[in-house]
Amino acid sequence: MSLLIQNLRRTLISRRALSASSGPRAPKCTTTGRLFHAQRISCAANTSAAPPPNDETSFEDDGELFSPDAEKTRSPSLPPSPAKPGGELRTRRFEESFGFLSTHIGRKPSAEDSLQARSSTWLYLFDLATQPEQLKRVSSKFSQFVDGGRVFPEGHALAFTRRCAELRCPQLALAVFSDRPTYRLDLTPAAARHLMYALHEQRPLSDVIALATLYRLYKLPPLSADPVSCALLISACLREATASGSEPASTIATALLPGFKDLLSRTELMPTPQSATENNSLKERLWMERAALNILEVLSSRGDDTKWIEDWCTRNGYTPSEGAP
User: Fold this and answer.
1) Cα(138)–Cα(150) distance, rounded to whole angstroms?
2) Which has more pLDDT, 87 or 189?
3) Which of 109, 196, 272, 290 has the most CB within a 10 Å radius?
4) Cβ within 8 Å of residue 270, ≥6 positions away
């Protein structure tokens, strides 16, 4: 299995591994049972990508962004958003907030006052950003925040990933999480699944595999225990094999399917969100639906046994006409 992964990465990507001297060394790929081991990679963020036309995603202004005392904890969820500012106002607010943040974090903040940027400032900047380049500038300050003795609340990784996906630059999030010694923002299970879906939809298979290697590095639940992530990975491999005839991609998908079949046998139903506050759970259910139906379609076209996944999709109410999120 290790040889298959290496061959696929050699075929699909031409990027060099980052030096491991500044961070923990990642083990090499091993067996399918462990799926993928962590591997440090270099992912150059394409900051020229443009957001969707008329993109007016929300930003939140939760009141005071800066306080004399550093905020110790922060809810992972984003607060409701007020009316959005116009383009020039939004840009001005971004630059002002980014300027304040830059001078009020780190071991020795350069600002003359004693104020510290609150954790909510990051969320504010994520939502104010309308271009990948702005998000890249914000991410360049992550390590200074940690150097100053601060800790990112868990929800910030998801918020950053979500905004990268909205601005169609998930490769930036991948680059950040692939270089922990530089950025110091930890990948979380929710952020990993969101990024896996964004890469599945917007990027080549090589990026999906690159993300899969990070699960072990960040000590996340293995892909073999995460039905959403596992389904998205297999779906991406099957799609690549169908589109390009890639034998390594097809072989890896085939090797992963038995474990995925066993995982589904232990996952009777996907959780159904009960309220609007569980929006991310709803998204994950839809991502699972899309991936599972894609797997079913490919396996059916190949003449493989599909009863196991067809029955599981039926139990969850998944139908081909409702597969797109």
Assistant:
1) 16
2) 189
3) 196
4) 227, 284, 285, 288, 289, 316
